[in-house]
Amino acid sequence: MSISLENVAGEIIARAGDTRRFLVAIAGPPGAGKSTLADNVAKALQAKGESAEVLPMDGFHMDNAVLIEKGLLKRKGVPESFDVRAFLDIVKAVRAADQEVLVPVFDRSRELAIASARIVSPDHRFIVIEGNYLLFSQGKWAELEGVFDYSIMLAPPMEVLEERLWARWKGYDLDDEAARAKVHGNDLPNGRLILENRRKADVTVDVVQD
């Protein structure tokens, strides 16, 4: 199934009615295009006169030093490599819409999260939350069930994900061996885990149109 940004923005606004705070979840495997779609949805909402901000789940990656201690550095991106408790707390604070909330943002070029790097203001009506495990049905991630007002699952074919992931890691100047380890040793297995253990989304798409 494919969707257009115009239709997505219109559907979100229609569902929100006169709600003061409306949470939109954009979930999917690594390389599915979550960050791009989230930014574009926020811009489409703003173009319609609405206030919107993006909250990326990647900001809750555990630091590499912690992942080394836990033996998870090579599997960075698996469900247990995120500070899910902190993420849940932030989402609850954002849901309340009664105060400014500072959220972390992940810098992929440096492979680290930057604390308090983005502001979610009470004046932001729509919060577009994007991340791998927003609709994941296992572990503590399952506590997110019922939190979001509208959800989109991005599920491109695996061959499309593989192509995008290769392009991503080669873009960071990784050699073939290192890129292969990222794509086939980590990202694609995580993608299959996400797709095989997901809660139902309001809409599931493989292609997003401009």
From TrEMBL:
Top-level taxon: Bacteria
- Whose protein is this, by species? Rhizobium freirei PRF 81
**Name of the protein in its database record:** Putative fructose transport system kinase
Keyword Kinase attached: yes
Extract the InterPro entries matched here. Answer: P-loop_NTPase (IPR027417)
Where is the secretion signal located?
Answer: none
GO molecular function annotation: kinase activity
Q: Which UniProt keywords apply?
A: Kinase, Transferase
Query: Does 4Fe-4S count among this protein's keywords?
Result: no
